[in-house]
């Protein structure tokens, strides 16, 4: 898998496919929906539950006598539901870093072969060739299992679409940390401060309310402190300078992708005129 991460020969196909995906999924609202922005959680891993569940169940039924009909229904359900799951995956893939896109390309290729095998399995079953349908189904399950293994590497080893900022919380020490003197804290301006000397947070004051948010963007660790504050859907949001993900400053909800994750807001209090924060 490390060799795949480093194999630049995959970039020729990957770069072309990325252009096709970005050119096809143009409306921002559609891309955000597929990233999982309305959920505050990536959509692709949730969507793959349906085809994977249906296909595994069909494989179990294929091993039992007299279960042709329900097995065919489940193969059909898995095949149809895999299409939107694949579209959501491609949308996420197009916003990944280059080494992640290489592995993602192999993940997508394995799943495309698996999906094709299942489409063949469905066609065979519907035309009465159940032996062939079962064989293609088992081959399809083996291939999508390989795809799932590669997808696991992409998520757990390479951190694709996982929240990149949350690990900051694990490094923060307990107790209240002083951040700024309220008397000198400007209104409606992004300020960057550090907690425990190396955990960056951003401060945004609106009247007497102050938001303290982790600075590292959940998408790919972009510096939110260098981003802009924009009004989106009636809420002040910080927009990441790297790929444009936007997070509400009064709650941390993601309102614009490619991040599919919300950003972490930290609790605050004011002690003797000094703004302080702590772990949630
Ligand atoms: S790092 Fe990609 S949107 Fe922030």
Biggest beta sheet attributes: 4 strands, antiparallel
- Helix-strand sequence: HHHHHHHHHEEEEEEEEEEE
Strand numbers in spatial order across the main sheet: 2-3-4-9
* Overall pLDDT level: 96
Amount of beta strand = 15-25%
Rg is 23 Å
Which parts are unreliable, with pLDDT below 50 for 5 consecutive residues or more?
A: none
Estimate the helix proportion, in percent.
40-55%
Number of strands: 11
Q: How many alpha or pi helices? A: 9
Distance between the terminal alpha carbons, to the nearest Å? 37 Å
- Kindly name the structural category: alpha+beta
Question: What's the helix and strand layout?
Answer:
Blueprint: H1 2-6, H2 11-24, H3 28-35, H4 44-47, H5 49-62, H6 68-93, H7 98-126, H8 130-157, H9 167-171, E1 177-181, E2 190-195, E3 199-206, E4 209-214, E5 228-232, E6 235-239, E7 246-248, E8 254-256, E9 265-266, E10 268-271, E11 274-277
Antiparallel strand pairs: 1-11, 2-3, 3-4, 4-9, 5-6, 6-7, 7-8, 10-11
The structure holds FE2/S2 (inorganic) cluster (FES).
Residues 217, 219-220, 222, 240, 242-245, 258-259 line the site of FE2/S2 (inorganic) cluster.
Organism: Micromonospora vinacea
Cofactor: [2Fe-2S] cluster
Protein name: Nitrite reductase/ring-hydroxylating ferredoxin subunit/uncharacterized membrane protein
